[in-house]
């Protein structure tokens, strides 16, 4: 009963959070465009599924992903082996990013547009290779970012140095990158901070900062996500230059 009560609370909370989006869409559809919703039944059913799915997803994060991320960070900190901790951080960033549905969708769409624009061959094999190359590039960049962020927490480096340096790198790479890859690179930085990556990475940072003496979880545990959204821009533009 307690689990059911918490799920119901999560559904009500998600409904409250989604209400402004529903009101905005309804206002523009009915008052500005002045047209009824097409296939209203399907839209309502889909919205209900989104609501329930989002509530269950958030509940799963609270019950599963956050605890396991923090416990792994504690375990590696107690182990005291920097190599394995950085290896785990890289593998976590790589694995969660390669599993991101948003990244898969963006990479596939980018391959389609690249084929239409003549950047690559329009054959399925060439498009799949291009999309896979993008996904692997972004995944490697996020793995690198998480490993660097973990090293920052251990060494106590200020987060602003990494963020400012990352943005300088983005600006420099934008000057030299092919125009057709710049927009894809910028979007790649956004899709990495999505449903799968953020919870585990945030839990890793907070757990690691909590387990290290002299580190503050609020000031040292966060910031990994911001850096993880910068490195894909740099790496994808480099991918465009090399390719």
What does the model show?
It is a single chain. By secondary structure, this protein is an all-alpha fold. Helix content is 84%, strand content 0%. The model has no long low-confidence stretch (mean pLDDT 80).
Topology overview:
Elements lengths: L1 H31 L7 H40 L2 H17 L2 H16 L7 H32 L3 H18 L2 H13 L5 H15 L5 H4 L3 H19 L1
Helix pairs in contact: 1-2, 2-8, 3-5, 3-8, 4-5, 4-7, 5-8, 5-10, 6-10, 7-10
Keywords:
243 residues
* Poorly predicted regions: none
Distance separating the two termini:
56 Å
Topology, number of strands: 0
Strand content: under 5%
Mean pLDDT: 80
**Largest sheet, described in full?**
none
Supply the number of helical segments: 10
Radius of gyration computed on alpha carbons: 21 Å
Order of helices and strands: HHHHHHHHHH
- Shape assignment: globular
Structural class: mainly alpha
Helix content: over 70%
Report a brief summary of the structure.
The protein is mainly alpha-helical. It is built from ten helices and no strands.
